[in-house]
Write a structure and sequence with these properties.
27% strand, binds adenosine-5'-diphosphate, binds magnesium ion, 253 residues, alpha/beta, 6-stranded mixed β-sheet
Length: 253
């Protein structure tokens, strides 16, 4: 039995819209388990990004509970939330949000310096190692504007891993990439998951989703379906895609 990293109870999130409440997350109850590659799917506007931001403490819940390994995040002090975000969570976004005047190496390392638990020497060697593992060490001294989208995203994954996070949150990480770069980034996410890294990815792209092993379907802010598959193997990618598509069409995708 795997331990839950995240557990939500009756999680709700609404936004005020012209004096009316737009209920984007409606009583979401879920657990995200360690070592899983969990994928949240659903059509555009279903609330996927909002769910990711709310459970990772980037945005505040309206009501309900979000626990990170038993610590309540809803209503916790900003300092405590910031510590958990910096030390335990890694983030990868569609737009990489790299700092434009820092090199890829500096981008990967800087979050490690800020954390303050490792020496500069340790952070630097970890950044080197991660950029190497992400196959982007050849471009480590370049600025984000001087590399391809795929290289930038690989550096962003290295940055997300710098503090050895408990879980990586990825919001449409391949949404801005071409086919080849998409493939490389997904292979890397699959590889780090194989090595034990827990990943929670949000996507509406079936080809990206097949890397996952547990799938949740979100519609109108509610989880309406769940499916699991064995961990990804490239040889049966086509089969997985078919299985996933069949499941998605049963969800009226
Ligand atoms: N900051 C915000 N303010 C107001 N409405 C928002 C905000 N963020 C998201 N929404 C609304 O929440 C709904 C779900 O958005 P989102 O979580 O981005 O969906 P998805 O990622 O599944 O496409 C949309 O109707 C969107 O307009
Ligand atoms: Mg989104």
């Amino acid at each position: 039995m795997k331990n839950a990293i995240i557990k939500t109870t009756d999680l709700c999130k609404s936004f005020a819209n012209n004096g009316r409440q737009n209920h984007v997350l409606d009583m979401v109850n879920l657990e995200i388990y360690e070592q899983d590659f969990t994928v949240i799917m659903g059509s555009s506007g279903a609330g996927k990004s909002t769910l990711l931001y709310t459970i990772s403490g980037m945005d505040a819940a309206t009501s309900g509970s979000v626990q990170y390994r038993g610590t309540e995040l809803v209503g916790c002090r900003e300092k405590e939330m910031a510590d958990i975000r910096a030390r335990k969570f890694g983030f990868v976004f569609q737009q990489m949000h790299l700092v434009s005047n820092l090199t890829l190496f500096e981008n990967a390392a800087v979050v490690g310096y800020l954390d303050g638990t490792r020496s500069k020497k340790d952070v630097d060697s970890r950044a080197e190692m991660l950029l190497c593992k992400m196959h982007v060490e050849h471009a480590k001294d370049r600025l984000p504007s001087q590399v391809s989208g795929g290289e930038a995203q690989r550096a962003a994954i290295a940055r997300a891993l710098i503090n050895e996070p408990d879980i990586i949150f990825a919001d449409e990480p391949t949404g801005a990439l071409n086919k080849q770069n998409t493939k490389e980034v997904l292979e890397l996410l699959t590889e780090i998951n194989r090595q034990g890294q827990s990943v929670l990815m949000v996507t509406h792209d079936v080809r990206a989703a097949i890397c996952g092993s547990r799938f949740l379907y979100l519609e109108d802010g509610r989880i309406i379906g769940e499916m699991t598959m064995p961990p990804y193997e490239e040889e049966n990618a086509k089969n997985r895609e078919k299985q996933l598509e069949a499941w998605l069409s049963s969800m009226s995708w």
